[in-house]
Design brief:
By secondary structure, the chain is mainly alpha-helical. The chain is 68% helix and 6% strand. The chain starts with a helix and ends in a 14-residue tail after the last strand.
Length: 900
């Protein structure tokens, strides 16, 4: 493939990233903002050129040593549910924007410690960025089959690097507040993570099923290599120990690499996203790992006897078979791995460089005298220049220091260097006694061991093999500490971490930190206790005026944002806006506002410049913290009690409202019952009076009056029986006669007495039978009563020439009976209440329907006695009642039902 064509593909790919970043920033939809999978995919920035190319080279030349790079993170990631949740909370309440800020704030918000941590990260990550540039350059020339150019200006890879630097500078500095979430960048990184996995899967399937006849075929053919068994076993205790140490190195790296801290902590939008990440990211790594073995050993089989770099088997294999499409896709996958690492690393390093070195040690005085617009422009330009300069420095480093070194060795050295931050980092969140002196001396000792044991031989000796003198002698002196079972890198990692941790522990125990260290120690270790009132737990005593601090804030935030922030603060703590003096809460609040823009250490320096702090003894700090804990605990209890009282008050209010409604319903019910009782009594009395007063009434009329008396007496008896029967159902005094019955026979028995009424109103009656069996357990007499009540209700509200449809079916081992009628809809708010004992709709017409309102209440009690349910729904042109009845009813008592 020509250089021009591939360069055009790279341009198109970068344009796609620009588009994704732009759309994510512009639309800010829930898909991008609250998507846990976007967060989890962004963590795959861990998979760089080293994992895309280097691990294949390791698998081919060193066997199983590629696995620890994936297994180490998978081992520690489940602990993120505890560790990272705490770190995210600490970072959020302190507006932390970088790893340097996180560690230095814990140890007294030290400017010097943050600067040293920044330098450590620069030393570790610039070679690592150079590693990515090396991979881009070499694979570009490999795909285009062009020689490497010694002239930087004529090398196409140079222009690719410049494009990446421009992209990073533009999108990485859109927010002057470094703690802001970079939605565009993270969305682009997530897309790259998906694509690089997708492309490695395509390559893996190509190798396994096109080049070879499956995984078994590769394994059988590769097993004929003399070193196959040796490279794919632990090789005894020596191999196992090296493997274990490499797992520890990678487990440390996944927590401490600046880019991983940024995507996992700073870019975390919701703590619950961590729950998704702890299973999704290890799964991602597992899928990645599955295809490394067949690609590595497939490459060895194909290129056996040829002098090729095994790290680039992923490019060479499809190229060998003239498959340009897969070759380009794999190149883009590797490019994705490199670009994502370069972008995030450059952004995080530029934040640390500006906030912890350039601003606090050079530009802070200038920024104090300028306005908000000038300061914003200055900070943004510093970061843009830093990003561009860091990438160019890494390019130069690649050209002159790591041109001939392997991807694997450069990556591991960077991991070991960054691991020197581990004692101070983990001590910050778990150990109160950890001190600034202990962290600083331990870090310096660990770095010294790494410098003489790894950095000098890796970079300087590779550049000048004839180098002699003091440095060579110091390097040779490390032979005294040689551990026979460990390789060079695991050995240096072991000694550096041992010395680092030992000094950190011993010095921290032996010396007392200042009050500020102990203050932040409590805030870090007990973050769950202070998260709601973290400003109350910040200890500060002295003289400060709000107007002075406000002037500083306005120079960085602007007048409007400052005033808005002050209003929020005053509302939160119920402070009068006319208050002139600032307390410790306002000092902490102000430092947090500045921290995202200029870093925690610089924010502290600026606030200290306009305030006068009194010295506080460590004993006073401990007493204040203890009081603060008690106050927070007391506030928490009071809040809980207040919430409980509020809940009880709401429950009582709801119960009172329900009682009022029930009382009104009871009055309506009694009125209705009185009316229903009065009607037959009046008819009986009238007919009786006529019969008593007139002895000469013709026999036919007398007979009619007597029949009316009998009919109205029956009606009166029916109403009274319904009331008594419902009362018995209410108190569980009715026993059911549960037997096996044919539901179709029961259906016909229930419908028969109502047929003439249905025909009188010209109502269309239909039946839909979807049953496979017809025998169910129930009390037939009660079931007939239930069906007649529902049909009677349907008859009452269905107009002439309407429809009543009954459907019988079986679902989930339950008999389902639905009765639909074309009567008017029930108000939505009444659907749950129509089965209440005293209920009659408040929305019905002035002329109430006949009946006392007991039919549906009785129906509900009957079906509940069968362990079933009944509900009403508005559907289409009418109302549907749905009855659910279990196939089998467990009932100890199956006595006959008491007669009505």
């Amino acid at each position: 493939m020509s250089s021009f064509a591939l360069f055009f593909v790279v341009l198109f790919y970068l344009a796609l990233l620009f588009l994704v970043a732009h759309l994510a920033e512009k639309k800010r939809s829930k898909f991008w903002i609250n998507n846990p999978y976007i967060y989890a995919l962004s963590l795959a920035v861990y998979c760089t050129a080293w994992t895309y190319y280097g691990s294949i080279g390791v698998a081919a030349t060193s066997g199983l040593n590629y696995l620890p790079i994936y297994i180490g993170p998978a081992m520690i990631i489940p602990a993120w549910i505890y560790i990272n949740t705490r770190i995210v909370r600490i970072a959020r309440i302190n507006k932390i924007s970088s790893l340097a800020d996180f560690i230095s704030l814990r140890y007294g918000n030290s400017r010097s410690l943050s600067a040293i941590i920044t330098i450590v990260c620069l030393l570790a990550i610039i070679p690592y960025i150079g590693l990515q540039i090396k991979a881009i350059s070499e694979t570009f020339h490999l795909v285009t089959e062009t020689p490497m150019s010694k002239n930087i200006l004529t090398d196409n890879a140079t222009f690719v690097v410049v494009l990446i630097a421009l992209f990073s500078s533009y999108y990485g500095t859109r927010y002057v507040d470094a703690s802001e979430k970079r939605l565009g960048i993270i969305s682009a990184i997530a897309l790259e993570s998906f694509l690089k996995l997708f492309f490695i899967i395509i390559l893996g399937l190509f190798v396994i099923y096109y080049v070879f006849d499956g995984f078994t075929d590769i394994y059988q053919k590769a097993s004929h290599f003399e070193d196959f068994k040796e490279k794919n076993t632990f090789n005894g205790i020596e191999g196992a120990m090296n493997w274990m140490v490499l797992c520890m190195i990678s487990a440390t790296a996944i927590c401490l690499l600046p880019r991983q801290f940024h995507v996992a902590i700073v870019e975390n939008r919701q703590e619950k996203h961590i729950r998704t990440a702890i299973w999704f990211f290890p799964l991602y790594l597992l899928i990645f790992t599955i295809f490394i073995f067949p690609i590595a050993w497939g490459g060895r089989l194909i290129f056996d006897g040829e002098k090729v770099n095994p790290e680039f088997y992923s490019i060479l294999i499809p190229q060998h078979f003239d498959n340009t499409i897969i070759t380009v896709l794999v190149f883009l996958g590797g490019l994705s791995s490199c670009i994502s690492m370069i972008i995030i690393s450059a952004i995080t390093l530029s934040i640390m460089l500006s906030n912890n070195l350039i601003i606090p040690y050079g530009l802070l005085g200038k920024l104090k005298s300028e306005n908000e617009e000038q300061n914003t422009r200055s900070i943004t330009n510093i970061r843009k220049f830093s990003i561009f300069a860091l990438i160019i420095m890494a390019f130069v480093f690649y050209k002159y220091f790591i041109l001939k070194t392997s991807l694997d060795s450069v990556g591991l050295i960077s991991f070991v260097i960054i691991a020197q931050l581990a004692p101070a980092f983990f001590g910050a969140i778990f150990w109160r006694r950890g001190s600034y002196k202990g962290a600083l001396i331990g870090l310096a000792a660990g770095l010294g061991i790494c410098y003489f044991g790894l950095i000098i031989p890796q970079y300087y000796f590779s550049y000048n093999q004839e180098f002699k003198g003091v440095l060579r002698d110091m390097y040779n002196s490390f032979n005294f500490f040689t551990i026979p079972y460990l390789a060079r890198i695991p050995q240096i990692f072991f000694w550096s971490i041992l010395v680092n941790t030992g000094l950190f522990t011993i010095i921290s125990v032996s010396t007392k930190g200042n009050y500020r260290e102990r203050n932040f120690a409590e805030l870090y270790v007990d973050i769950d206790k202070y998260i709601q009132n973290h400003e109350d737990a910040f200890i500060w005593r002295g003289t400060a005026y709000i107007s002075d601090i406000q002037n500083i804030l306005e120079r960085f935030l602007g007048k409007n944002k400052t005033e808005q922030a002050l209003r929020i603060f005053n509302l939160k703590y119920n402070i009068d806006s006319k208050t002139e003096t600032a307390d410790s809460r306002f000092i902490k609040f102000s430092e947090n506002l500045l921290a995202g823009r200029i870093g925690t250490a610089s924010a502290k320096i600026l606030i200290e410049g306009v305030t006068k702090e009194d010295k506080i003894s460590l004993k006073e700090v401990l007493n204040i913290l203890e009081e603060s804990k008690e106050n927070i605990s007391l506030n928490k209890k009071l809040t809980e009690q207040s919430e409980e009282l509020q809940k009880l008050s709401n429950d009582l209010r709801t119960a009172n409202e329900n009682l009022i409604v029930k009382d009104r319903q009871k009055d309506d019910f009694l009125d209705s019952v009185a009316h229903e009782l009065r009607t037959p009594i009046t008819a009986i009395r009238s007919a009786g009076e006529i019969l008593a007063d007139d002895d000469d009434i013709p026999f036919e009329i007398k007979q009619e009056f007597l029949n009316n008396i009998i009919t109205e007496s029956d009606r009166l008896s029916e109403i009274i029986n319904d009331i008594l029967y419902l009362d018995k159902l209410q108190h569980g005094e009715i026993s059911l006669n549960i037997q096996q019955n044919n539901i179709l026979d029961t259906y016909k028995k229930a419908l028969s007495p109502l047929l003439h009424l249905i025909q009188q109103k010209n109502i269309h009656l239909s039946e839909v039978n979807l049953l496979n069996q017809f025998i169910f357990e129930y009390d037939e007499a009660r079931m007939i009563q239930l069906l007649q009540n529902i049909w009677g209700n349907a008859l009452k509200f269905t107009d002439e020439q309407g429809t009543i449809q009954t459907k019988l079916l079986e679902r989930d081992h339950q008999l389902m009976i639905t009765i639909f009628n074309t009567g008017k809809h029930i108000p939505e708010e009444d659907l749950e209440m129509i089965f209440d004992k005293f209920y009659q709709s408040k929305n019905q017409n002035i002329l109430k329907p006949t009946g006392s309102g007991l039919g549906l209440a009785i129906s509900k009690k009957i079906i509940q006695a069968h362990n079933g349910s009944i509900k009403a729904e508005n559907r289409g042109l009418g109302v549907t009642f749905t009855i659910s009845l279990p196939e089998k009813i467990i009932n100890e008592s199956k006595n006959e039902v008491e007669p009505l």
